[in-house]
Amino acid sequence: MTRLVIVSNRVAVPRTGRRAPGGLAVGIMAALNEWGGLWFGWSGKVADSVPFKVDTQDQDGITFATLALSTQDYREYYRGYANRVLWPLFHTQLHRVEFQRQDLSGYERVNKQFARRLVPLLKAEDIIWVHDYHFIRMGRELRRLKVSQPLGFFLHIPFPPYEVLRTLPGHEDLLRCLCAYDLLGFQTELDRKAFLYSVEEALGAMVHSDGVVSLSGARTYSGVFPIGIDVEEVMSQAARGRQAPYGRRLIGSLANRTLITGVDRLDYSKGLVERFHAYQRLLDLHCAYHRNVVFLQIAEPSRGDVPDYQTIQHTLEALTGEINGRFSDYDWVPLRYINKGFARATILGFLALSRVCLITSLRDGMNLVAKEFVAAQDPAEPGVLVLSQFAGAARELKDAVLVNPYDIDDVVEGIARAIEMPMSERRRRWKNNMQLLRQNDITAWRCRFINMLRECAVDKPNLSWHKRSLPSLSLMPSNKSSQPTERLEILSRGMQPSEGVLKHAHAPLSADCRLEVD
Ligand code: F6P
Known about the structure:
Layout: E1 4-10, H1 23-35, E2 37-47, E3 55-59, E4 62-70, H2 71-90, H3 101-118, E5 127-131, H4 138-144, E6 151-154, H5 162-165, H6 171-178, E7 183-186, H7 189-203, E8 206-207, E9 213-215, E10 218-224, H8 231-243, H9 245-254, E11 258-265, H10 272-285, E12 293-300, H11 307-327, E13 335-338, H12 344-352, E14 356-359, H13 368-376, E15 384-388, E16 401-403, H14 408-420, H15 423-439, H16 442-458, E17 473-477, H17 488-491, E18 513-517
Helix pairs in contact: 2-3, 3-4, 6-7, 8-12, 10-11, 10-14
The protein binds 6-O-phosphono-beta-D-fructofuranose.
């Protein structure tokens, strides 16, 4: 029986007392629920001495297997190489990169250790899907340990242009590690192209017109899989959230003022400083908005022991003081800056109550909040999304008000346009965006990736997995009466289904598809 094995740095282990997981975790859980499987990664714990034993917990056919990090591993792998090198570099924030050879060793060591600990937990029929920049080297380590199951990797964050990537010492090896996977998934075509160009330039790899990379006799497939959301789940949570006490108290506190909302991890890549400057200029230029708008920025602290994250926190606190000091009145505070997280339903309720959502990322793999805001809206009176053109979501949500966060006046104009937008235009834009969200929801995303990974593995006769009997797996619209809509190749632009590979590329996709294993 085919089982799905997910590897990611964070694991949404149930009953850990942590807040409800975000959209991605919800999607991964749905895949694991469907297939049964294993979710493997870091427990979130840091200990001076790490027990050798992997901590496992079974629930409803899913095994959660986690490991703690030693203090040194945490410092070098997580805080060092992952978050002071790969994160800023991949977000094209070169000036923030602080490369240390020791951190690279830590990253290599943790990827190796985690691979070693994973192997005994694997079964012959498994499909392994590794997520994000923390575990780029995992694929090669697993292959070295003779793991022959299909291996896929999805990069949730952007892939940098080659000119940026090549500043990283050892970038050639990182690219070789990526080529150890059978399938690489990217959020946008831009990211995939940047990767293909890099392997050609740095490694002299052969890149075929269908996006297949040939390197040292091995083939790696690549595709574009923009991550989606569970539209129905967001809609029902948002409806709950707006009726809940938090939602009602928010509405009461607004006294009929227009609510502009931003929801982000407190991260420099989100363009929060630029956003605050734009809001300040909006108030400078438009007296009519004084006392009539409220900007609610929720920014949950993140990676607080990385110096750049401490700096941005101080900058935003100072800017909040400046803005509120300049414009507040005895009964109006223009900016509510909140440094904590809320339950998922509460956040979705806040988004549902917002007239404008402000997303000004300087660079963002996708930005699921953009999609969640659209899905949370009341169809009769939808709010308007102001979205950075540098977020992956902008490639799909073309009916948002797209802005350039590097041009403050463009953001100011975008906010004003969103506030003033006539209802008919709001409804038209919302409808178009919603259609897209339904076509490419979280189920379609994982179905596409997993199906393609299976196909890639079948096409690779060197994998022993290939020789076993494969359960037939198809991407089926669960509601047969629904209209077939988009086809995979729209989202995997540039990929031609090749013989024996991607035969599901032409499977009709509906908003609601499921994987069938028989
Ligand atoms: O979205 C990118 C990402 O790094 C995820 O992989 C991660 O779970 C999330 O941001 C939060 O970051 P961290 O795990 O470093 O707190």
